[in-house]
Design goal:
The complex is a heterodimer of chains A (114) and B (114). Chain A is an all-beta fold. In chain A, 0% of the residues lie in helices and 53% in strands. Chain A has no helices and 11 strands. In chain A, strands 2, 4, 5, 6, 9, 10 and 11 form a 7-stranded mixed beta sheet that branches. Classes of the chains: A mainly beta (114), B mainly beta (114). The interface between A and B is medium-sized, with 27 and 24 residues.
C-alpha cells in the first residue's frame, strides 16, 4: 500500500458523459500527478499540481481538467467522453514539486467508456 | 520531445536465469532515471533511481541498473530471477531540476517460469 488512495476503482459510462476521478495523496505530500495508461499509448503524464497550483502539463486533452483542493486531494474531470478515453488513470504524489522527489502511485481508476 | 524506449516487450525466463532489460532515452537536457515495477494487481512501485554520482545504482529486491551516458541507456539487471519477479517493468525519465511528470517507456512484461 503506497498510501495514495483513488476512487472509484472502476467506472463504466457512456460516450458523451462526464466523470470525476478522485485522488488523496499520502499524508504530508503536497504534489499530485495524474497519468493515463492505455494499451496503445502506454503510460502518459497528464498534469501536476503542487499545493493547489498547476505546476506542469503533459499530454492532457482540452476535454480534461484537474484541480487540487485546500485539503490537497485532487480531482480529474473528464468530459465529452469518447471510446478512446477508456484507460487506467493513475494518481501519484510526492513530497515536493521537484523532479528528484519519489512519486508514489495509487491503485488507479479503470474507466470504461461504452 | 523526450522519449523512452524499452526494447523487449515480453521476456520469458526460467528461475535462476540472469535478467537484463534494455532502456534508452532521448532527451536534450540532464535527466533523472527510474525503473518502476507493477506486480499483478498492484500499484506501480519504485525499484531504483539515478540522479547523479555512481552510475551503477542498486535497488530493492536485488535489482540494479547502470547509467551509460554515452549510450543514453539505463539497463536493468538482476543476476538470478525468482518466480516472484513476474511483473511489468517500466523505465522512466524526467528533467532534473524541473517540476515535471515522468515520461515512461511502453513497459516490459516479464514472466518467470518455475
Amino acid at each position: 500500500d503506497s498510501g495514495v488512495t483513488q476512487t472509484p476503482k472502476h467506472l463504466i459510462t457512456a460516450t458523451g458523459q462526464r466523470v470525476t476521478l478522485r485522488c488523496s495523496p499520502r499524508s504530508g505530500d503536497l504534489s499530485v500527478y495524474w497519468y493515463q495508461q492505455s494499451l496503445d499509448q502506454g503510460l502518459q503524464f497528464l498534469i501536476q499540481y503542487y499545493n493547489g497550483e498547476e505546476r506542469a502539463k503533459g499530454n492532457i486533452l482540452e476535454r480534461f481538467s484537474a484541480q487540487q483542493f485546500p485539503d490537497l486531494h485532487s480531482e480529474l474531470n473528464l468530459s465529452s467522453l469518447e471510446l478512446g478515453d477508456s484507460a487506467l488513470y493513475f494518481c501519484a504524489s510526492s513530497v515536493r514539486d521537484r523532479a528528484t522527489y519519489e512519486q508514489y502511485f495509487g491503485p488507479g481508476t479503470r474507466l470504461t467508456v461504452t | 520531445a523526450q522519449s523512452v524506449s524499452q526494447h523487449n516487450h515480453h521476456v520469458i525466463l526460467s528461475e535462476a536465469a540472469s535478467l537484463e532489460l534494455g532502456c534508452n532515452y532521448s532527451y536534450g537536457g540532464t535527466v533523472n532515471l527510474f525503473w518502476y515495477v507493477q506486480y499483478p494487481g498492484q500499484h506501480l512501485q519504485l525499484l531504483l533511481k539515478y540522479f547523479s554520482g555512481d552510475p551503477l545504482v542498486k535497488g530493492i529486491k536485488g535489482f540494479e541498473a547502470e547509467f551509460i551516458k554515452s549510450k543514453f541507456s539505463f539497463n536493468l539487471r538482476k543476476p538470478s530471477v525468482q518466480w516472484s519477479d513476474t511483473a511489468e517493468y517500466f523505465c522512466a525519465v524526467n528533467q532534473r531540476g524541473g517540476a515535471d511528470g515522468l515520461t515512461f517507456g511502453k513497459g516490459t512484461h516479464l514472466i518467470i517460469q518455475p
